[in-house]
């Protein structure tokens, strides 16, 4: 059976060149903090990788802190900025207000909910029907108490790209820190921390063809955050723990490849995404596309198939070799409809009938042809069994 992977926002496969460097470095066991030869060899590899990660987002190597996953990067910033422990941060900002949106990833929303329980006030900004945050609303929400604004670069479910540079400018004018969760964006579209003007940015290896278990956070030079993982002096004391040499080398390689190939890949993937979108629109009635028509990640296509359940579609497609997802991988397994789809105004039944196709560098025209052969048939068959379709 043909296998077509269209779930690259859940995770990406290893790039063959990344796999190669992992294999080549399997014996690089030295602790990067050791002074001897074994340690220094690892240190060099880690620092080379840091340069490559920094280069991809136009940062300096000193501004990159390695972590274990995008969730950790988000937690590190949120907890590190809001920490009011005068032992680790004598000049701790005492404001207790944070601004975010209603469509963030759980690794942003959940630490913020914890802070709410601890007495912080969080403003959860609404989004429009495309999933866009209005910079004016951000501006209006800022108070003297505001310590952090955190808005994602691109949404993992619908692909909408937020007006990050505009929001960052507002944050700067009000001297408020600005963080963006760019876990879905880095490696899939151009991301430049200087152009965006952000203070913090999260990225994750397994979304850009590196393995799971390695990620990074950009912390603009001169900003101090309290360590969320307390330990040794690794990562400038911000993130203790012996460095994951192999993961970090792999992430560096993935960033180097993205830097070289990104423009060409984006163009190719966007063409395939548009072929899939037009093909579905032409072949399947009673559907609509979610997310912004233009300000959207080149690889992401969120489609609502009315009168049937996304879960059934995803399972039937999987049986035919096509991997897609109903929303974010983190939300699957829950009966609740996606908070992102509800926030853009979809009623529950439409939110439940939504499929996310997310393309990657390995996809071909033939993959899309196969999807366009299978998807309309599966949707038709499911609708024939659906009482909602019969009653419409
Ligand atoms: N932020 C966004 C927007 C994501 O899509 C994800 C993962 O799906 C994460 C954060 C979490 O990243 P990780 O899986 O590396 O913890």
Protein described:
The chain is an alpha/beta fold. It has 2 domains: 4-11 and 262-391, Aspartate Aminotransferase, domain 1; 16-257, Aspartate Aminotransferase, domain 2. Helices cover 41% and strands 14% of the residues. It contains 13 helices and 12 strands. It has helices spanning 16-24, 37-57, 70-82, 106-117, 135-141, 164-173, 193-196, 245-283, 310-319, 339-343, 348-352, 365-385, 387-391; strands spanning 4-5, 64-67, 97-101, 121-125, 146-150, 177-181, 200-204, 215-219, 287-290, 300-305, 322-323, 354-358. The strands form 3 sheets. A 7-stranded mixed β-sheet has the order 2-8-7-6-5-3-4, sandwiched between helices. The longest helix has 39 residues, at 245-283. The model has no long low-confidence stretch (mean pLDDT 95). The site of pyridoxal-5'-phosphate (PLP) has 16 residues, from helix 3.
Order of helices and strands: EHHEHEHEHEHEHEEHEEHEHHEHH
Number of helices: 13
* Helical proportion, percent range: 40-55%
Question: How much of the residues is beta strand, in percent?
Answer: 5-15%
Q: Structural class of the helices, strands and pairings?
A: alpha/beta
- Rg on CA atoms, Å: 22 Å
CATH domain fold name of the largest domain: Aspartate Aminotransferase, domain 2
Ligands: pyridoxal-5'-phosphate
CATH hierarchy, class of the largest domain = Alpha Beta
| Overall geometry | globular
User: How many discrete structural domains?
Assistant: 2
Order of adjacent strands in the largest pleated sheet: 2-8-7-6-5-3-4
């Amino acid at each position: 059976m043909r296998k077509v992977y269209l779930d690259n926002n859940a995770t990406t496969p290893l790039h063959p060149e990344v796999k190669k460097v992992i294999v080549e470095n399997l014996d690089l066991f030295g602790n990067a903090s050791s002074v001897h030869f074994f340690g220094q060899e690892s240190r060099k590899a880690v620092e080379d990788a840091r340069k490559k990660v920094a280069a991809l987002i136009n940062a300096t190597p000193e501004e990159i802190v390695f972590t274990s996953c995008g969730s950790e990067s988000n937690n590190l910033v949120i907890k590190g900025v809001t920490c009011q422990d005068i032992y680790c941060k004598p000049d701790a900002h005492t404001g207790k207000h944070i601004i975010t949106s209603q469509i963030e990833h759980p690794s942003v929303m959940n630490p913020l909910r914890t802070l709410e329980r601890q007495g912080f006030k969080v403003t959860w900004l609404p989004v429009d029907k495309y999933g866009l945050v209005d910079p004016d609303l951000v501006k209006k929400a800022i108070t003297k108490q505001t310590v952090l604004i955190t808005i994602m670069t691109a949404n993992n479910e619908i692909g909408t790209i937020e007006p990050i540079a505009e929001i960052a400018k507002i944050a700067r004018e009000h001297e408020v820190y600005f963080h963006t969760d760019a876990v879905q964006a880095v490696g899939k579209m151009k991301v430049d921390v200087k152009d965006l003007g952000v203070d913090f940015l999260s990225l994750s290896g397994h979304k850009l063809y590196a393995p799971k278990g390695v990620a990074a956070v950009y912390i603009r030079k001169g900003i101090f955050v309290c360590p969320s993982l307390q330990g040794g002096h690794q990562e400038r004391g911000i993130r203790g723990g012996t460095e994951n040499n192999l993961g970090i080398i792999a992430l560096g390689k993935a960033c180097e490849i993205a830097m070289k190939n990104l423009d060409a890949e984006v163009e190719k993937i966007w063409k395939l995404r548009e072929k899939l979108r037009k093909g579905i629109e032409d072949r399947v009635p009673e559907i609509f596309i979610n997310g912004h028509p233009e300000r959207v990640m080149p690889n992401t296509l969120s489609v609502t198939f009315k009168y049937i359940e996304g879960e059934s579609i995803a399972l039937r497609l999987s049986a035919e070799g096509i991997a897609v997802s109903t929303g974010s991988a983190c939300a699957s397994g829950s009966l609740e409809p996606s908070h992102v789809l509800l926030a853009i105004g979809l009623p529950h039944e439409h939110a439940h009938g939504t499929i996310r196709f997310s393309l990657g560098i390995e996809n071909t025209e033939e993959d899309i042809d196969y999807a366009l052969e299978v998807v309309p048939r599966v949707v038709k068959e499911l609708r024939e069994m659906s009482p909602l379709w019969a009653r419409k």
